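REVIEWER CHECKLIST
Item 1: Sequence provided? yes
Item 2: Single chain? yes
Item 3: Sequence as submitted:
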Amino acid sequence: MTLVSLRRADLGHVGQDAWLTKCSAEHYAEHYAETRAWAREIRRWLPGAHGMIWRSFRDEDRFAYVLFGDRVASGSLVELSSIAADTGAGLLLVQKVLQRHNVVVV
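Item 4: Structure as written out by the authors:
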């Protein structure tokens, strides 16, 4: 699978800087249309790409992915495991992740 890297110096290859993947939450709404426009252009420039990858805004140790549904063949992604997120171990996992990011659901 070919992914366009939007990490660190790779952003320069698409004419951007860290703003594209790091705009702050308070400014996100006003920049959302612009980030979507950039994504459309990157997709257009690289017709062989199956998606994009970058460092997560909230957790720099993890990656965020966007896969283009019309470019990823059916069956390419296989579910390794699954648990319900609203009870038991799944709910505990969700709560742990939310706590790590200082998020509370009311």
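Item 5: Key structural point noted by reviewer: Strands lie at 3-5, 51-55, 63-67.
Item 6: Recommendation: ____
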